[in-house]
Structure formats: C-alpha cells, structure tokens
Amino acid sequence: MASSLQTDVLIVGGGPAGAATALGLLTYSGLRVLIVESSDLSAVRVGEQVDPSLFDLLAYLQITREQLEEDSFIQGYNTLSAWGSSHISSRSSITSSREAAYQLDREKFDLLLLGKAAEKGAVVMPRARCMHFQQSADGHWTVQVKHQTRGELSVQARYVVDATGRQSSIARQLGIGAAVKDQLVAVGAFLQVGEGGSVRQEVMLETVEEGWWYCATLPNRQVVTTLFSDADMVKERQLQKPANWNALLARTVHVKQRVANSTAFGSPWVRGAFSKRIDTTARPHFMAVGDAAASFDPVSSLGIGFAVSSGCHAARALCQLDEGDGAAINTYQQSIDTIFDQYLSTKATYYSQEKRWLTAPFWQRRTATTY
C-alpha cells in the first residue's frame, strides 16, 4: 500500500520558479509546501545573464546578497552582438536598457533557492515523478508520486503548482493546452578552454542564415556555445550531429574565434527554446509559474528574472485565494498575459533589425505577422 503525505501546496519542479514560489509561501503564509523534483539536482545548468533587479526579488524572499555563495554572481560581463550586420556592438537585453549586468552561476543559484526553501520548512523530494492527478469536487488534489527509492506515494494537496519548465508537463497531463508561437530550439555544447586559449568574460551573440549563436563564459575555464534555430531545420539538416554543428560554427565570423583552442565535452544537446503561454486559470486550485506559465526566446533575457518574479506573484495569489479572494488567480493570469504580449511585440521589432537573410526560412518566419 502506498504511503500517504499531506500538504497544502504541491509544487512540481525544483528550479528557480518552483523554489521562489515555495519561499514566497513560506515567508508570507502558514501554508505547508512539498516540492517534487524529478532530477537528482546534479544536472549541469547553462549560465545566464541577469540585471540587478533580481536582487530586489531576492530581498522580497528575505535572501540578502551576503547570503549568496562566492562567485554566484560575477559582475561586469559585457554582451557583444553582431546582429543586423557583421559589425560587433554592445547590447542590452531587448527588455531592459539597464547597463549593469551579472553572469549567474545557475548551479549555485538554483541550489541556494532550494536550500533556503528547505530551511524555511519546505519538504523537498528529488528523484520523484508525479504519475497521476485526481481532483475532487472541492478542488483538492490526490497525486500519485513515484519515488526512485521510496516507491509509490499518495500526496493529498489543496493546490498544485506546475513549475516543470518550458514543457509544462503537469499542465499537459491535465489537458491544459499551450499557445505555442514558434519552434525555436537550442543546439549547444559545453566546451573546455585549453591552457593556451584566452577566456574572455563576456557574452557574444552572432546571427547567421540558419538562426543565431550564443556564446558565454562559465566558471572553471568553460564556455557554453549554442545555436538557436527552428526544430524542423535542425531535424532536416541534422544540426545536432557534431560534424554538422561544427561545420556551421566554423562559418561564423566571431563566435568561432571565442571557442578556438577549446574541446567539447560531448555531442551537442538539443533543448526547447520556443515561446509559449498557457492559461493557468483552466483548472481550479492550479497554477503555473516560470517557463511552465510562459516561456520566452532566450534573446529576451527574461528567463531567470521572470521565473523568480512569477514565483513571487504566484505565491501572493495563492495566499489571497486561500484567504477567500476568488479573483486572485485571474489577476495573476492577466499579469502573465500583459508581459507576454509586450514581449511578442518587442521581440518582433528586435528580429526585424536583421535584414541580411530576408528570404531564409528562419528569418522569414520572424517577420511574418502570423508566426
């Protein structure tokens, strides 16, 4: 017979969005929180550039800069861009004109948030998957969870939060569809820079006919290099294969120079990078946060900031709902919709700056009003 656990809020996903939601709930309410995470928390995470507004969100969650592990944030990463021409220029995020920026060590940051949630009382269950959801007439949930070592568990929760990332796996299990706006994917690799190679503390973007490249320095003389293109193009041209990926990299003007004298850890990986949103009001006592609620083109630099801010707002909405405010989730959804609509408009303007490959499928799609 399966063991049984009871909680107020079941958060599925232990990334920044899920952890921020948990911290918001535990800081500003008495609700009990259980976080179920499918991984063992050891996955390598891509570094990300953030602006100083993230520190305001952390302060709201009662995390001070002094509590951050050394080198979690490295100040002063310059972002260079060859976008619209082969000439290199500095750029800020398409959603922010703030010049100050920090390169975020995702592994340290993610584990910090999750650790702080555990310190405040969250039960964190890694290596576990939610297999089946059943909702009663009063909106409460019974969720069958399969743990790698503890076996099957039955979790009773009043609220469920989908924090599973861009795939919105819980929303899909519940039959909640997503409005997907494109088919962007990332085809990338982690590279180790040899002793003879130079390591520049900067981020580089470079457009090509097939899409655009992203290159950023990571700790320990590592570099992440990623091609962003469309899924059908990657499949048709087999761009995930090392020979094809390397051949396309060799045709770049600037990125190839930044990865000279480096060696890849393995074959390129492929991850979704598409823009989409879901309707988090589709089921009672359900919410989605971070990429599970709305996901953005990485060129926007909205990822981590939105993940944490949406977690903070979702926690507040859940507190209000628990106190009897039936409109709280609708208000949360309206804020997501506003952010996403503004993002789509700004993204279209930004992509329109590249006019060298107007007949290429990747760029044609991003100038089409229906894409």
UniProtKB/TrEMBL annotation:
<dbReference type="Pfam" id="PF01494">
    <property type="entry name" value="FAD_binding_3"/>
</dbReference>
<feature type="domain" description="FAD-binding">
    <location>
        <begin position="6"/>
        <end position="334"/>
    </location>
</feature>
<dbReference type="InterPro" id="IPR002938">
    <property type="entry name" value="FAD-bd"/>
</dbReference>
<dbReference type="InterPro" id="IPR036188">
    <property type="entry name" value="FAD/NAD-bd_sf"/>
</dbReference>
<protein>
    <submittedName>
        <fullName>Lysine-epsilon-oxidase maturase LodB</fullName>
    </submittedName>
</protein>
<dbReference type="InterPro" id="IPR050816">
    <property type="entry name" value="Flavin-dep_Halogenase_NPB"/>
</dbReference>
<dbReference type="GO" id="GO:0071949">
    <property type="term" value="F:FAD binding"/>
</dbReference>
